């Protein structure tokens, strides 16, 4: 069975000192590097938040405060600080992440009007990123997922992976939650388990 490692959004803005830093984010990077060193993956894919500066998920572009919610194109949208803007240092992958064995990069969140937590598609399920096509082309059946943040982009990448027919495993030691609310990370784990995702470690 062919397997791939999906590394979600290990970018400067989500790491220590970033615009949208996930608590403990830097702690997962050595674990992710060790996975790549000790395991044989047929493909290793990075996802990358890649927002235009005028993205509608940014509070600053809506005259709102960070933490508020609006309805954006028919779906609820949390208001985030500006982050992972195309071409900026914040959008770059963290320097400590070993990318020697990476075979593919998927950029998401490029549409100004719609956010994209999942590595597979936008939040409205209108536009695919090309990840599913890439994995199917390479006959991947098993996905192991790590990265940031567990309660948003990692969770939605995992649930979409299951929906697309992949056996899906989350490495608990390879992810951290942003925890806008203290229970978000816990609830994300429960939700993923209920959807058939195996949580390892």
UniProtKB/TrEMBL annotation:
Its Gene Ontology molecular function terms? nicotinamidase activity
Q: Which gene encodes it?
A: pncA
Q: Which CDD domains match?
A: nicotinamidase (cd01011)
- The protein depicted here goes by the name nicotinamidase
Top-level division of the source organism's lineage: Bacteria
**UniProt pathway annotation:** Cofactor biosynthesis; nicotinate biosynthesis; nicotinate from nicotinamide: step 1/1
Q: Which UniProt keywords apply?
A: Hydrolase, Metal-binding, Pyridine nucleotide biosynthesis
Q: Which organism is it from?
A: Chryseobacterium endalhagicum
Cited SUPFAM superfamilies:
Isochorismatase-like hydrolases
């Amino acid at each position: 069975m062919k397997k791939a490692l999906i590394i979600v959004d290990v970018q400067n803005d989500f790491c220590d000192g970033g615009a949208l830093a996930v608590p403990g984010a830097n702690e997962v990077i050595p674990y992710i590097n060790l996975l790549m060193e000790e395991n044989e993956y047929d493909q290793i894919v990075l996802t990358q938040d890649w927002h235009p500066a005028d993205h509608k998920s940014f509070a600053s572009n809506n005259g709102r405060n960070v933490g508020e919610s609006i309805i954006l194109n028919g779906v609820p949208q949390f208001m985030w600080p500006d982050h992972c803007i195309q071409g900026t240092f914040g959008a770059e992958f963290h320097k400590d992440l070993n990318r020697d064995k990476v075979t593919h990069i998927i950029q998401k969140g490029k549409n100004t009007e719609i956010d994209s937590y999942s590595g597979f598609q936008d939040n409205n399920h209108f536009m695919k990123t090309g990840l599913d096509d890439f994995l199917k082309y390479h006959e991947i059946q098993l996905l192991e997922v790590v990265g940031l943040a567990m309660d948003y982009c990692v969770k939605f990448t995992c649930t979409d992976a299951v929906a697309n027919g992949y056996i899906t495993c989350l490495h608990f030691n390879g992810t951290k939650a942003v925890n806008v609310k203290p229970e978000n990370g816990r609830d994300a784990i429960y939700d993923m388990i209920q959807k058939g995702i195996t949580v390892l470690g």
